[in-house]
Amino acid sequence: MNKILRTMAQAAGVWAGSSYAAVRIAYNQMFGRSKLLKYSMDYRYADYERLYPGKYGRRKVQIPDDGYELTGYIYGEDTGKGLIIVSHGIFAGQECYISIILKLVDRGYMVLGFDNTGCCESPGDGIGGLPQGPLDLMCALRFVENDPELKDMPRFLFGHSWGGYSVTAVLNYVNNVDGVISISGFDTPTEVTMEMGSSMLSKAVMITMPMIVLENRRRFGEYANISAVQGINSCGIPVMVMHGTGDTYVRYDGSGIINHADEITNPNVSIVPLDYPGRNGHDDIFLSAEAKEYINELNEKLEAPKKEYGVKRYWQLPEEVQEEFFRNVDKTVSAQVNMDLVDKIDAFYTGILNKEL
Residue 202 class from Cβ within 10 Å (0-12 exposed, 13-18 middle, 19+ buried)? Predict the structure, then answer.
């Protein structure tokens, strides 16, 4: 019997060790560096400079963050309605949200967009893990608090996906914010990681849960599994939680903050399901109906070259193929913003400014 128990213990040890090693490898791959794609169906800041010379200035800033500096930009410095700090999604950077940022500048807001650790213009070998988002956002808020031109402005947070998590999770630790909008955010890193793992692999990934928890704890300590819902409940400020009803990336009926609405006790929270016909997913909620239809057509056209070169994503195609394709993309259509969503965002922040919320 003792021999059998020893054998079982050894087998369990081997399984645990190999599973933990696999989790660490997967983390390093999943949370490596993110870069701004050279070719996109949305505008880049350079496009706006070319289309509207002198209209949308920006100032580069460096945000101190634990021995290094995050790169950010302040847009709309001649506006003073309020300051919106944008927290971007995973595998992205602040400039991926440039169209929505500049629409908010048009509404009279100053906007601070910055790249998280390991993303685009900011340093770092990689993201490291989802808890890095709220940690970087804390640094951005400290930067604003210490900036003589920014510190006295009404201060709002806006985040999508990973950023939607960050802007709510950070509320566990800060109280110098006037209002928050979270779009497509999740409640905890562990829940969304398991959800995505199960979707991409199988339910068998659930047996690695202890290793995922352990790796998150090793990397981030007390910040390993901060809850967005707890952050929302820890304060009394207005928070708007928005989520596409058809989102299958951060699931509307799964890890999404919106699916935890019955756990929210903050009386100043607005829950807003987004159910635009044909664009109620994770990202397409930002698009106009015309842009969504056109992008669908473009994606269909990309299927042939992707099949020819044996790749899954257009950015994996040879650069000359991408260049030729995007030369014919009409960004006046593909970059159109969902103005109803902009109206909702503006109305929420304006309501706070007017002390209506």
Answer: exposed
